[in-house]
Target: Type II toxin-antitoxin system CcdA family antitoxin
Amino acid sequence: MSSDRVTVSLPAEVRLAAQRVAQEAGVPFSAVVTEALETWVRGRLIDAWLVEYQAEHGAFDEAELREIAAEAGVAYIPPSPSRTVA
Model:
């Protein structure tokens, strides 16, 4: 995969925390930023797929969401009306 150099503005406390985590993990800061962005993009793609799926098949109910989380071995976090897809 090719790489491009970009300039971004980050809150100082976020940058410092991410740099500390990168240093402790022995990885470049850019690897931490890349992983965070990959995770964010993956989340947006999943959100878009879920909207499409539910438009075709109907919305998941609370029990289904809890079951999916249990099967995936993750904590169930109820949907938040404040979460937006950007």
Q: What stands out?
A: The longest helix spans residues 29-57. The helical segments are 12-25, 29-57, 62-72. The mean pLDDT is 90. The chain has three helices and no strands.
